[in-house]
Amino acid sequence: MTNWVLCMISSLWIHFATLCVTKKLGWRNRIKVAIGLARVVKFIHNNEPRYLIRNLSAAHVVVDQEFNPVIVDFAMILGGGIGDAETDRVITFGCHDYLDPYIWFTADWTERTDVFTVGIILLELILKQIGIGMHLSYKLLSYYYKNGDFNLFVPKSLRGDPDFDSEDGTELTMIAVNCVEEEPYKRPNMDQVVSKLEKLHILNDQFKDN
């Protein structure tokens, strides 16, 4: 099980936000970061009592030398003995470009709020960009409904990666776009996200849970 405790960042850890935009993070390891992060958030959501992260962002994720992601900031975590995840309706500023816009209308923090942020980070992995925000996300949604082909959004440097699989590229982007659906009830939960990621062609036994 992936460890999600707060870790001291050393020279052995790399900030995801720095690594994401570079060619050092190839397609296979982007998938590894995606599945690792999704499993971490799934674990947090499935904890009893459950927790919400609320301020997840690229800046709050580091990866080790084997590209295993770790969340390093839980300043806004909610649940268990830390507030009440069901009744807290105070708008607390999350991370710019990662905050679910639905919060501004309802002030209702739910698991789908974290799912939205995971979707943004998945899109960042696909596009090799940081801070894409919700506007580009909704452009992708619009494009999907019109065309259904996401591989045009994958940079040439990734499409040319020997590990790149066009079906995986489409599926990963569909997962990400579903996570940032405008209506929270249309978004998958983290169990569903992990299940879909684990079906990607590139994944082999070393990435799967024993």
Automatic annotation (TrEMBL):
Protein name: Protein kinase domain-containing protein
Domain of life according to the entry: Eukaryota
Classification via InterPro entries: Kinase-like_dom_sf, Prot_kinase_dom, Ser-Thr/Tyr_kinase_cat_dom
GO molecular function, one term: ATP binding
Stretch forming the signal peptide: 1-22
Domain Protein kinase: 1-204
Gene3D superfamilies linked: Transferase(Phosphotransferase) domain 1
Keywords, comma-separated and alphabetical: ATP-binding, Nucleotide-binding, Signal
Organism of origin: Penstemon smallii
